[in-house]
What does this fold into?
Amino acid sequence: MALKIRMSRAGTRHRPFYKIVVADSRKPRDGAFIERLGSYNPMLQKDDKNRVVLDVDRIRHWMSKGALPSDRITIFLHQAGLGPKPVIRETPKKSAPKAKAQERAKAAAEAAAKAAEAPAQS
It folds into this structure.
């Protein structure tokens, strides 16, 4: 069984509240879970102590059993001092400008550099 520590959404529309749970990765997001490990309330201020509530002992227990935290939970664990800083992935190559757009940007940068250099020489 592939275990994940992830968030399960609760609350109403426009007022989200998330339960931090350990669940089988094949189950739906808001479906059955094994154990509740904490909560996350994004409606509270960032410095509020009740914004993220974690049961540290149970999280360590489930991680020792092989449960993998989701990306957001990894960030929460790092902020609580329980794990390393998550790796921020590089922007995908697909979203980079295409060749012609890169050439135009390079030409514009060179023209701007020449324009800035010309008054300095006079």
